[in-house]
Each structure stands twice: as C-alpha cells, then as structure tokens.
Amino acid sequence: MKNFLALALPSLAMAAAIVEPRQAPDVRVVSARSISNGPGSGCPSNKFSVQLNEAANTLTIIFDVYDTLLGPGTDPDERENFCDFEVTFNFPLGCTQGVITTRPGGTIRLEQRFEASFSAAYTISPGQLTGSPGELRFTSANYGAPEGSWLDYTRDHPTPVRVQIATENQRNVLYTARTRIFLNAPGITPAETSVFGVDHADIFIGQLSRC
C-alpha cells in the first residue's frame, strides 16, 4: 500500500497542477442609442454621443443637455429631466450571470436643504433582472461642503442580471434604462439656484459567472 501511495501521489499532484481555473464568460459592450427624442428629453439623439473603450468592456455615454435647475426665476419644469437609452451587449451561448453597472457622473451645486436624485428602471431582453437598485440621493447636508459649491460626482447604480442564450442570433442583448433626475427644496423658497447635471454615464458589466 505504501508503494502504491508513493507512486500515486506524484500523479495526483501533477493532475492538480494542470487543472485550470474556470474562465469568466466573455461579454462585450457593443453600442448605445437614445430612445427618448420627445419634448423635454434630456438626451435627444442629437445631444447624445457614445465612446467605447478598446477592450469593449466599458461604454461611456456623453450627455450635452441632461441637467436640472431650481431657483429664483427658473421654470418649474426644469427641476426634473429624463433620459431613456438602450445599450447592446454581446453575450456568449449558455447561461451567464453578472452585474451591469450604470455609473452617472457630472456636476452638482446644492444650496442649503436642497436634495437631488437619480433613479432608473431597467429591463434586459432576452434575460431577467435578479435585483433592482434604489435611487441615488444627494443632499446639501451630506454631499460635500460648503453648501452651494460646485462639486464633481460619480455614483454607481448596479443591477444584477441573468441571461440565457440558446442560439447565435440571440447573442445581442438589449439593456434598456429609463432614467430620471430631480431637484427638490422641501418646504423652502430657494434664494439661490441649485443645479444637478449628468454629463456622462459609464456602462459596464462585471462579476461574471456561468449559471
């Protein structure tokens, strides 16, 4: 028995050494387009541009007019804005799960007691969401100081997804985002103008695995 074990152990060690870790599925970001060209849209197609990095794993949407204003003399309608867009991902055959993150960034200026928010409703086809993120909130009390200063921001809005691809012609998957930004000054009459804008949003997928 000892001789057998002595012979077997090197073979087992070699077998363990050549076992390769399971590779994460290869998912690429392909393109994005605006789907909100109506009145009041914060991203009409002529004010919406896209940059894709060389590795095709991060897509950046550039917004020219996606912002909100609230203050003396501003139109009340300017306190709210929206942007709907679609992002195309290319998934491999089989079942893949991961997390798609929308990372809005831009500039913000909040006067005392002002609040701003970014919210979104997402869908994916084919596939399903396995979770839904809450809205991103910004307040003058907890986001930067002093109040009323111009600040840069980025925040993550992650959504877990599960996608089953059965045939080659299903591999292009549409991820739809219906986003909204809003400014509020609860219970006060603003003396200065607050601004909340989304200049860009990075879209990427991570935490990939087979399901």
Index terms:
211 residues; mainly beta; nine-stranded antiparallel β-sheet; five-stranded antiparallel β-sheet; elongated
Structure in words:
This protein is mainly β and about 210 residues long. It has one domain. About 10% of the residues lie in helices and about 50% in strands. It is built from one helix and 14 strands, in the order H-E-E-E-E-E-E-E-E-E-E-E-E-E-E. The strands form two sheets. Strands 2, 3, 4, 6, 8, 10, 11, 13 and 14 form a nine-stranded antiparallel sheet that branches. A five-stranded antiparallel sheet has the order 1-5-12-7-9, with no helix packed on it. About 5% of the residues have low confidence. Keywords: Signal. Pfam families: DUF4360.
Quick rundown:
8% of the residues lie in helices and 51% in strands.
- Helix coverage percent of residues? under 10%
Overall geometry: elongated
Nearest-angstrom radius of gyration?
23 Å
Distance between the termini: 42 Å
- Beta-strand percentage range: over 45%
**Which regions contain 5 or more consecutive residues with pLDDT less than 50?**
4-9, 12-20
Mean of the pLDDT scores? Answer: 89
Helix count, DSSP H or I runs of 4 or more residues = 1
Largest sheet: 9 strands, antiparallel
Number of domains: 1
Total strand segments? 14
Question: What is this structure's SSE topology?
Answer:
Elements: H1 2-18, E1 28-34, E2 48-52, E3 58-63, E4 67-70, E5 80-90, E6 94-109, E7 115-125, E8 128-129, E9 136-139, E10 151-154, E11 157-165, E12 172-184, E13 194-197, E14 200-210
Antiparallel strand pairs: 1-5, 2-3, 3-14, 4-13, 5-12, 6-10, 6-11, 6-13, 6-14, 7-9, 7-12, 8-11
Keywords: Signal
Protein name: Secreted protein
Organism: Lasiosphaeria hispida
